[in-house]
């Protein structure tokens, strides 16, 4: 089964993941100013951007271009976003295959229990842990970016490089991350909770233990 056939199911995996994220982190999302925008950012910028095909085709070219126009720390952070996109897509496509093989989707929707079962069937637990780590680092990068003085000047050469290789979608992701973070006083409580809860669920799935809504994914 090729990726185009899998894409609608991958998007269903993303939607189910966001439903779980909203529930698992409701204690934070509903009480800390600015956190309510996090699920939308995850869904529309990290997991399922509208112009995904353009992004995938252009990101590596952008990374090579950025080496000549941005500092090492900025380039390394952007490269991590590229790697996060790749590992997330790979895990979601593998999960989508399991969903199809086991008929786990009902009318375009994947129930939470079915999502957990599919993730457990995929395995790849070390990749899951690496994904969790990179999400945390990427969120920290966006938060630090939002606190930089003259950030528009810093972003200018990155925008030029992105336009030259057709990777404007990455700039959209960075600007969305900047916009989200600029409304948040401290992102660390979410990052720490995310990494703790997500890793606990991965360990439960790996050990064959029962899981619950309150665990991460």
UniProtKB/TrEMBL annotation:
It holds the Pfam family DUF8198. Residues 17-210 form the DUF8198 domain. InterPro entries: DUF8198 (IPR058511), FFLEE_fam (IPR058063). NCBIfam families: FFLEE_fam. This is DUF8198 domain-containing protein. It comes from Leptospira broomii serovar Hurstbridge str. 5399. The lineage of its organism: Bacteria, Pseudomonadati, Spirochaetota, Spirochaetia, Leptospirales.
